[in-house]
Amino acid sequence: MRPLPNPKRTVAELKELRAFTADDKGAQRVAFTPTWMATRDWLRRKLAELPVEVHTDAAGNLWATLRGESERALIIGGHMDSVPNGGWLDGCLNVLAGLEILRRLSTQYNGRPPVTVRLVDWADEEGARFGKSLFGSSACSGNLDLNEARGLKDKQGISLPEALKTVGIDFERVKESGVELNNAAAYLELHIEQGPVLLDLDLPLGAVLGTFGVERHAITFHGQAAHSGSTPMNRRRDAFLAAAKMSPEIYRIAERSGGGVCTIGSCTTQPGIVTSVVEECRITLDQRHLDPAKLARMLAEAKAASEHFAKEGNVRVSWERLWQIAPRPFHDELIALCDESIRETCGKVHPLPSGPLHDAAEVAAAGVPTVMMFVQSLHGISHNKIEDTKEEHLELCVMAFDALAEKAVKWIVRRE
Ligand SMILES: [Zn+2]
Prior knowledge:
By secondary structure, the protein is an alpha/beta fold.
């Protein structure tokens, strides 16, 4: 029998972390702040007890490397940073479970596993201060848009390059962190689900199929302003009426798509006064799906519907793309191993896509075989101090994630 990890220690360490990084509003481990630096010092002290090499890369990601017989590396990732007033598990559960796996591997293989195993704490996953998520992992994957990131400022007007300088990071060199992926053979990430799917199914753990692709658009209907008293109902060119018809329609589009989601998150009107028919109505549409073809179909259906409603109401419609990202499906064989690990640990598994983006999406985009495991979130809520997961589920996820790491080590050896 191989040695097992000690999941109770992981739960105790999560509580230890919470005790010095949270206040009565929640976790305060915002990237590049003194609390985040203290979090990293604490993590470094834990890592110092293991036969690992620790260094920080050009983008501020912290790496702990347990050298193995082969240079090919299994990478386990997470992020110690949180949003302001955040939860106690988001990101740090992944890192602390990874720490426990490093301990188990180092005991089992006398400090030298068959392949190299690395734990990474990605810098500024949340993007809470500069509004740009996945900073460290997108620098490492090469996807970070330097021109865009260079201009980002926080609420105090401090630029991202200036803020990075205070923690010893040279913005112009952050993409040099890409060398860290040179020998990457597989990437694993554990995360709280942050949604209610596993909770509603009453299952502790899920194998993640990939992260959703996103289409984000502004849709503007152009009608005509007219007096609310003197304009008969049949003479109106009401931009709001056309936009409003989109609301039930996107629910039908999402329903037909088989697994996609659509959201109208904002609606603004001009002239926006109580005595005028709406001349211009702008809504935003966010559509997400794991399947690129189905995502494209959802978008096409929304466009067709908007044109139909515009024609019906004698108004005009225009579209503007705000942002998009392709779906990032995870690696089939690693998904199968994740599934197996969960079955062996708790009997039942549910495969599900991830709505939120994670660092894993960046690593997958860089071409590294990737998979994530989700553990149930109580209330289906995160980025909030009420974020929570049952302790028995936290322990189960450490066991299942450790089993996955062991299977992934063997998978890498087989592929060499
Ligand atoms: Zn996270």
